[in-house]
Amino acid sequence: MVRGWARLERLVSAAQNGRIAQCQLPKRKRKVLPRVAGARFCSTEQTLHPTIRPVNAVERTTLTEYGQYIAECMPKYVQKVQITAGNELEVLIAPEGVIPVLTFLKDHTNGQYTCLTDLCGVDMPSRAFRFEVVYNLLSVRFNSRIRVKTYTDELTPVDSACEVYAGANWYEREVWDMYGVFFANHPDLRRILTDYGFEGHPFRKDFPLSGYVEVRYDDEAKRVVVEPLELAQEFRKFDLNAPWEQFPKFRDHVPAEDIPIKEEKE
Amino acid sequence: MLRQLINSTARVTCQSQRMGIQLLQPRCYQSTSIDEDKTTATILNQETDSGLMVDAYSQAGFRLNNGMKVLGPIAIFPRSVLSWKVKSAEDINEDSLSLFHMLEPKIDLLVIGVGDKGNKVDPRVVHYMKNKGITLEILPTETACTTFNFLNQERRYVAGAFLPPISLRITDEDLVQSQRRRNKLFLSQDEDSVF
């Protein structure tokens, strides 16, 4: 936190002394966009309000253009590119393209997203393809993060990312255990968090909070027995929404803004 | 090395990574002994009173932690082991699993080692066993042995039904251990080819 404050004060004093350098925006016509590693720290505005997150327009434009570049490089698999309010780039791809897109992001010189920081699933039961698989990648070279999202349903397998990122092993086991998403070509896909005889996939939205079974020690049988759930108090669902609007200034807020991808012209 | 592999494919044994390592943390009470600050690690399979565990497996059979070697598929219980009459994973049916649901006290969990990774078990058999009240854990034999060892160490009511795998991952450590076991570790192999 101290570093952030010190940086802000330096920016303010530099702005007052007229010493801030303008950052070069990459030109649109070039095929290979150079990545500006220090884009995060460039700012041409004076932000004196410490409690409001400064808008980093340079970073946003860099990420937007990189997102368009990815969409141009892989038009077969990339379906949508979004950028969130906090400058997080998200690439939405078809499930057939997991290995090609991840290999591209990892190995391409402009990407170099060599670190898989997270692999998780999301359950949206209202959709036809209810499960989303989300890959969070980090590029140490460019100090940049990106999110890759795919979709699937209960029965369709997704290609395992283990051949691209070895660290995907246990994450995919967790997604299999918790959601039931099968990963094809995974070296060792088995349960990781649930108990050995456990049935069901707990993170699904239709799986109840307290589960279906309970365990207790039976004194007569001198062993731990698994029985159907009996709650002493029936389940109460609380509606925690306040009657007043929470954020009136953010009524039109969109969590992620779509980045326009150029359509292929035949 | 390769020649030895070809000559003894049937007898190559795999050191089981199923030998889990159990870490024992020191108890948190006052003690005057200096050595009790250290964390100790013991090999799970070599603990006494921990029940039967699978030490190693091969294409031929299994070696257990009480020194016994069993050829062919096995049905293993906390304190005893039987040979199991099953040809392959497809042959696992209600009859071959009939022993497990007739046991008293009833087992919680049956770990089935299907051999190689891709072998499937008939889903109707899975349903049949679930109706009898026994949860199944169907895994490749390698991980099935490990799981059985851990569950046995925890004193759970578990039984294992393992088929020897066809394809093995052999490391140099495995070759050294099997040679040592047969007292052939320090014999030179080059001389054999001359004769």
TrEMBL record, chain A:
Predominant cellular place of this UniProt entry's protein: mitochondrion
GO molecular function: NADH dehydrogenase (ubiquinone) activity; oxidoreductase activity, acting on NAD(P)H
Alphabetical list of Pfam families matching this protein: Complex1_30kDa (PF00329)
Catalytic reaction equation(s): a ubiquinone + NADH + 5 H(+)(in) = a ubiquinol + NAD(+) + 4 H(+)(out)
Cleaved signal peptide residues: none
Localization annotation: Mitochondrion
InterPro entries in UniProt: NADH_DH_suC, NADH_quin_OxRdtase_su_C/D-like, NADH_UbQ_OxRdtase_30kDa_su, NADH_UbQ_OxRdtase_CS
PROSITE patterns in alphabetical order: COMPLEX1_30K (PS00542)
Sequence ranges assigned to domain NADH:ubiquinone oxidoreductase 30kDa subunit in this UniProt record: 92-212
Annotated Gene Ontology cellular component terms: membrane; mitochondrion
Key words, A-Z: NAD, Translocase, Transport, Ubiquinone
Family: Belongs to the complex I 30 kDa subunit family.
UniProt-recorded name of the protein: NADH dehydrogenase [ubiquinone] iron-sulfur protein 3, mitochondrial
